[in-house]
């Protein structure tokens, strides 16, 4: 009997000991790994795994290693909640997601409810790409942090650039039929109307999200409208296939996009032959000229074999580390408090700020165009020989937009 | 406007012919065996993935020949070792078998090629604009797709209507026992028909793969539309499936091209209604509801003419 107790105690110590040593910081990565969003979801996963490896190689955060848990949500809000619960059950106190504002709204709501019901077991939600403005306005939550510029910030910057291009006369809007696409279209109408009332909106299209496999009918419609420019917030296969159909039909317009740089986009643009006629708005890009970012891009490409679509993911993970070290704790409540009003030198240079009022990150924004590379631009995309070229930079101070968020703090 | 009509007609015809390639196999199988093959779109997907893989190994043209043969062989195996055994337990068992098979194929494809789209490109030989109409290019590959579909339609019709093989197949449809007594191997006829039906889906997959997206959920995305086509055309009727394919292809393409909404037809709602569900419905354009138009057609035809356009029996 006595011997048994000793053995059991010894076994427990060993088990407990190994469990303690292996205790990693688990981050649930909830994004599409199948279906129409899979191409971007898998790209995001590789990016986060690379970033985790990078931090782990330097000793992790407060001595603990990061582990990314890949969870496939099929771009479906309901499925995302199942996956979020799976992440929590697996011991994750942090989740990150980006593709789909409908998913983001569901997750933000889920995390908020979860944290009210389970004090002491709070979960933080890091959003790296869902840009519906409502997430940091009427639907804002203390537990949600967003590193990407919201859709209205991007549209503000994009329309400020378009305002000074006199050649733009007829604009066609085509967007995905869900919260984000609708906010892009509404913002574009409002802001273009205010800044360039002479511009005519000749088409305003909403199409089903990630379901269209052939955009030819839409391209025929754009062609018939006589538009000279198209504004779209499409992402994933919806931007790649849209550009591909345009290339096939030989549609010659200027494209003002949020995500033309995603998987398949650059290849299609090269095929259209639209040299520097496709624009993208991002928080950083390969040829930004900022040396640390370009060094990062080089090692990233060498190891992951894709270009860095998400400089914001770099900012997210590095700020997570900075905040945890500032709080000297990995307790989500303390990390959240440390993130508030945290200033941070972003990957592509310049200072960013995580605004306390709504948990929106403000950072410099770039408009770039895709085409033949200049001598000082080393990076092309998808082996096309073409790459992104700086067109305009908007400083952090000029990206600030007001918020209506009334945050409930714990 | 004329430009939009011409281009939309071309696009609609193309999509319609692709639907026909798929539904022809499905409808022939149904009329023979009385079983709705739920896995038919999965054979289409297999065709696309085999086409992709073989193109990488031996080039597009040999793949165009070989991939459908492979898919046909798989189809025959499914009939010989699966359906024939379940046949004695009735149609429900057969239906469930193909239903399960569809999921199994999807998972196997996802395991082998991953869940994201594969890089299946149009062959270089056909990667140029065939002609320019109203300053819009029409890709040669789409013309090729159209030509292949029409060719297969003609061959299929000829074989069924004009040859001895077609005669026996048609007889086996309605009087299997009589055909058996006349000394034909009905079991083998069924197997061959199932194989040919699957191979047709395979061809559709090989040629549609590069033009559309080749990924593991392509079967699930196209499957429901196929059932609309064969029910709309009349179960078991080949000409019916042909007409239904074209109608649905054209309707869906033209629906996208139209901007009309209830609001544009009857004027905006009273502003006092404010933003509500009602104003949402009022302002939805035809283009936005384009994806559900075929299903609406399905419901209407089932109410008005349950046997479909050219069907002969009410099932």
UniProtKB/TrEMBL annotation, chain A:
SUPFAM superfamilies: Periplasmic binding protein-like I (SSF53822)
Family annotation (CDD domains): PBP1_SBP-like (cd06329)
Signal listed as a keyword: yes
Keyword Magnesium included in the entry's annotation: no
Signal peptide: 1-21
GO biological process: amino acid transport
Entries under Pfam families matching the protein: Peripla_BP_6
Keywords (A to Z) from UniProt: Amino-acid transport, Signal, Transport
Record-annotated Leucine-binding protein domain positions: 24-368
Family as reported in the entry's similarity comment: Belongs to the leucine-binding protein family.
Record protein name field: Branched-chain amino acid transport system substrate-binding protein
Organism: Bradyrhizobium daqingense
TrEMBL record, chain B:
Signal sequence bounds: none
Subcellular localization, as worded in the UniProt entry: Cell membrane
Keywords, alphabetical: Amino-acid transport, Cell membrane, Membrane, Transmembrane, Transmembrane helix, Transport
Gene Ontology BP, a term: amino acid transport
One GO CC term on file: plasma membrane
Topology relative to the membrane: Multi-pass membrane protein
Source species, domain of life: Bacteria
Single GO molecular function: transmembrane transporter activity
TM region(s), chain numbering: 12-38, 58-78, 90-113, 140-160, 189-212, 218-235, 242-261, 281-304
Family, as annotated: Belongs to the binding-protein-dependent transport system permease family. LivHM subfamily.
Protein name: Branched-chain amino acid transport system permease protein
Species whose genome carries this gene: Bradyrhizobium daqingense
């Amino acid at each position: 009997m006595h011997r048994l107790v000793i053995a059991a105690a010894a076994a427990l110590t060993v088990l407990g000991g190994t469990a303690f040593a292996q205790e990693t910081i688990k981050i649930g990565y909830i994004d599409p790994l199948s279906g129409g969003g899979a191409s971007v979801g898998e790209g995001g996963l590789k990016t986060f795994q690379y970033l985790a490896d990078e931090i782990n190689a330097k000793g992790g955060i407060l001595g603990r290693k990061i582990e990314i848990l890949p969870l496939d949500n099929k771009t479906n809000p309901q499925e995302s909640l199942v996956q979020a619960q799976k992440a929590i059950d697996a011991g994750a106190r942090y989740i990150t997601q980006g593709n789909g504002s409908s998913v983001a709204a569901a997750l933000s709501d889920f995390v908020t409810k979860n944290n009210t019901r389970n004090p002491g077991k709070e979960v933080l939600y890091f959003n790296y790409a869902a840009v519906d403005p409502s997430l940091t306005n009427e639907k804002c939550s203390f537990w949600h942090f967003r590193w990407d510029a919201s859709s209205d910030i991007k549209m503000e910057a994009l329309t400020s650039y378009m305002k000074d291009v006199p050649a733009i006369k007829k604009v066609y809007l085509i967007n995905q039929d869900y919260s984000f696409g609708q906010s892009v279209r509404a913002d574009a109408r409002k802001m273009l109307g205010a800044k360039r009332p002479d511009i005519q909106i000749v088409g305003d299209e909403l199409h089903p999200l990630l379901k269209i496999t052939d955009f030819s009918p839409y391209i025929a419609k754009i062609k018939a409208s006589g538009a000279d420019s198209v504004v779209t917030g499409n992402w994933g296969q919806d931007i790649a296939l849209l550009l591909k159909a345009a290339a096939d039909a030989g549609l010659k317009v200027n494209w003002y996009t949020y995500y033309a740089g995603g998987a398949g986009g650059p290849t299609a643009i090269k095929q259209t032959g639209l040299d520097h006629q496709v624009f993208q708005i991002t928080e950083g890009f390969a040829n930004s000229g900022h040396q640390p970012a370009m060094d990062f891009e080089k090692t990233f490409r060498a190891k992951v074999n894709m270009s860095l679509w998400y400089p914001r993911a770099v900012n997210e993970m590095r700020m997570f580390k900075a905040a945890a070290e500032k709080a000297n704790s990995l307790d989500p409540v303390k990390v959240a408090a440390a993130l508030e009003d945290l200033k941070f030198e972003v990957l592509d240079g310049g200072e960013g700020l995580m605004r306390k009022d709504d948990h929106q990150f403000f950072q410099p924004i770039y408009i770039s165009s895709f085409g033949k590379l200049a001598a000082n631009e080393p990076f092309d995309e998808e082996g096309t020989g073409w790459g992104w070229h700086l067109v305009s930079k908007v400083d952090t101070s000029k990206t600030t937009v007001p918020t209506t968020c009334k945050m409930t703090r714990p | 406007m004329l430009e939009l009509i011409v281009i939309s007609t071309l696009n609609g015809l193309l999509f319609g012919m692709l639907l026909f390639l798929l539904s022809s196999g499905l409808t022939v199988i149904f009329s023979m065996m009385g079983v709705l093959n739920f896995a038919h779109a999965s054979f289409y997907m297999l065709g696309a993935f085999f086409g992709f893989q073989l193109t990488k190994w031996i080039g597009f043209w040999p793949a165009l020949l070989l991939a459908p043969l492979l898919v046909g062989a798989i189809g025959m195996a499914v009939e010989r070792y699966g359906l024939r055994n379940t046949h004695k337990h009735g149609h429900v068992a057969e239906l469930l078998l193909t239903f399960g098979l569809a999921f199994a194929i999807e998972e196997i494809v996802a395991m082998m090629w991953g869940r994201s789209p594969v890089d299946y490109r149009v062959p270089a030989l056909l990667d140029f604009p065939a002609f320019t109409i109203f300053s819009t290019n029409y890709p040669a590959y789409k013309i090729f797709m159209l030509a292949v579909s029409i060719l297969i339609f003609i061959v299929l019709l000829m074989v069924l209507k004009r040859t001895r093989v077609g005669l026996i197949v048609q007889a086996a449809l309605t009087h299997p026992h009589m055909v058996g007594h006349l000394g034909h191997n009905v079991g083998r006829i069924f197997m061959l028909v199932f194989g040919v039906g699957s191979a047709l889906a395979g061809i559709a997959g090989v040629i549609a793969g590069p033009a559309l997206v080749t990924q593991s959920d392509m079967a699930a995305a196209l499957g429901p539309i196929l059932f609309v086509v064969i029910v709309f055309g009349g179960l078991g009727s080949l000409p019916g499936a042909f007409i239904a394919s074209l109608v649905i292809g054209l309707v869906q393409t033209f629906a996208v091209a139209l901007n009309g909404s209830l609001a544009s037809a009857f004027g905006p709602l009273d502003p006092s209604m404010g933003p509500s569900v009602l104003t949402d419905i009022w302002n939805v354009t035809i283009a936005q509801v384009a994806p559900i138009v075929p299903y609406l057609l399905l419901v209407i035809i089932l109410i008005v003419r349950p046997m479909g356009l050219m069907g002969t029996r009410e099932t």
